[in-house]
Structure to design on (478 residues):
């Protein structure tokens, strides 16, 4: 009898201990680990080209830290040019809630969780700056890299120092600096994933609202609207429901006929689109004779106009620099062990040498040639393709070729500033055979997912991404 009692007591004790462990593991909890130093490490100013190969997508904040999203956690590391993901500088975890969206306002990282909580974190130290209650949010949808959570944050937008939160038919505004609730508006259905403009408006499929007050705006063209030249916040332009293009840099939108082209985007006030053979090139400036420019390729088509020789970015050494990788292209140079291929002149061919835009071409397609125009439609320059327009950084248009060469083109002149293969040079076996996935251009960096060339249309597939380290980070020359 005694043995039976002892066994029962031992079983009860084991059950109690197991329950305590299970409770401690599974009970709702919040864990925060702040940085041990007040300031993040200073990134190198010499590194150019592909600096990092990462297994998660970074949100570059303040040009000094990389922020990553996981299902139950947000964390950061640095410096931004580190080759791989480093030990977390700080982390913030909530269980069992899921991380829904992440945005950055200055040095503040604002996170949204599935229970509706909004938590703002200092990007440099990891300390919580403020908390607020919001509507329930979707769960984590970032897949393996977390890219959609940090590059296309669902229901979370920024404008004029205001954080806009959407869910169902509720649109709310919070002060991004303090988390204070400023306003709440009831909106028609279909207004969840809109975008904000640099003129401080929020546009969704069913209306336009003042981002600072939540008031419905009148006098705008009818939607639904398509953002142009942006990701989700502070867009400079849009197209309305009739496909007409508009500038949105002020409180009142202004027509931009060149943006009527469904393939067009805008970079630094210049419209970039696929080349259309029915648009003639502008006449050359007085005193300039059309023809091959100095340094142009002898194989260029007769009469092709090429740009002036590009300027080599600061910090790039000569091709005889010590440490040049034997696997790098001929003439490639290294900057702090990162290979940067030599720039090559860009070409601008006349209409009779370039093919027309194929039927079914979309903004994410490779254009046979790329053209620039003013917002009124006057042609500025044309450069040969094929190339895909990734967007712009400052005064540079970023073009990606089918061979995964990144070309930086001056938005005003069409001159080629640089050209580099998107390949992680420290690994001599790294490949250029991949197709682009999600990407973001910000703070002088391009981050891009690499997918298998024959990847299925399913991010959860084990063969969707090219490799475990599927994300490249590129430091862009000035």
């Amino acid at each position: 009898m005694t043995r039976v009692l002892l066994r029962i007591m031992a079983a009860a004790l084991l059950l109690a201990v197991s329950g305590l462990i299970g409770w401690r593991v599974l009970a709702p909890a919040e864990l925060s680990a702040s940085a041990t130093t007040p300031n993040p490490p200073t990134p190198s100013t010499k590194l150019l080209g592909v600096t990092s190969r990462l297994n998660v997508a970074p949100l570059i904040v303040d040009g000094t830290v990389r922020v990553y999203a996981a299902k139950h956690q947000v964390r950061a590391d640095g410096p931004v040019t580190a080759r791989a993901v480093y030990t977390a500088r700080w982390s913030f975890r909530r269980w069992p809630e899921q991380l829904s969206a992440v945005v950055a306002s200055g040095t503040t990282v604002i996170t949204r969780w599935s229970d509706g909580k909004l938590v703002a974190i200092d990007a440099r130290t990891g300390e919580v700056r403020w908390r607020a209650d919001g509507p329930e949010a979707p769960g984590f949808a970032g897949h393996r890299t977390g890219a959609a959570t940090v590059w296309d944050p669902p229901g979370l937008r920024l404008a004029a120092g205001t954080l806009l939160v959407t869910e169902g038919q509720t649109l709310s505004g919070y002060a991004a600096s303090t988390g204070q609730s400023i306003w709440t508006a009831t909106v028609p259905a279909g207004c969840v994933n809109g975008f904000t403009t640099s003129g401080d408006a929020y546009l969704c499929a069913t209306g336009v609202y003042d981002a600072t007050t939540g008031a419905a705006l009148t006098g705008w063209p009818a939607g639904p609207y398509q953002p142009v030249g942006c990701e989700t916040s502070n867009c400079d332009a849009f197209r309305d429901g009739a496909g007409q293009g508009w500038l949105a840099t002020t409180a009142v939108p202004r027509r931009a006929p060149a943006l009527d082209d469904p393939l067009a985007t805008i970079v630094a006030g210049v419209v970039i689109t696929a080349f259309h053979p029915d648009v003639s090139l502008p006449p050359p400036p007085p005193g300039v004779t059309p023809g091959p420019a100095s340094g142009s390729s002898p194989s260029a088509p007769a009469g092709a106009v090429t740009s002036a020789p590009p300027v080599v970015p600061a910090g790039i050494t000569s091709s005889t620099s010590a440490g040049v990788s034997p696997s790098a292209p001929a003439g490639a140079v290294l900057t702090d062990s990162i290979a940067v291929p030599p720039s090559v002149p860009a070409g601008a061919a006349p209409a009779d040498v370039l093919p027309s835009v194929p039927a079914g071409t979309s903004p994410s397609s490779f254009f046979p040639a790329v053209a620039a125009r003013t917002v009124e439609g006057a042609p500025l320059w044309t450069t040969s393709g094929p190339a895909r327009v990734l967007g712009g950084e400052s005064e540079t248009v970023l073009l990606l070729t089918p061979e995964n060469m990144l070309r930086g083109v001056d938005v005003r002149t069409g001159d080629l500033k640089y050209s580099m293969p998107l390949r992680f040079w420290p690994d001599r076996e790294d490949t250029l055979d991949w197709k682009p996935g999600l990407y973001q251009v910000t703070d002088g960096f391009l981050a891009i997912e690499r997918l298998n060339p024959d990847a299925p249309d399913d991010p959860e597939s084990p063969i969707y991404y090219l490799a475990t380290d599927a994300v490249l980070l590129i430091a862009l020359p000035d």
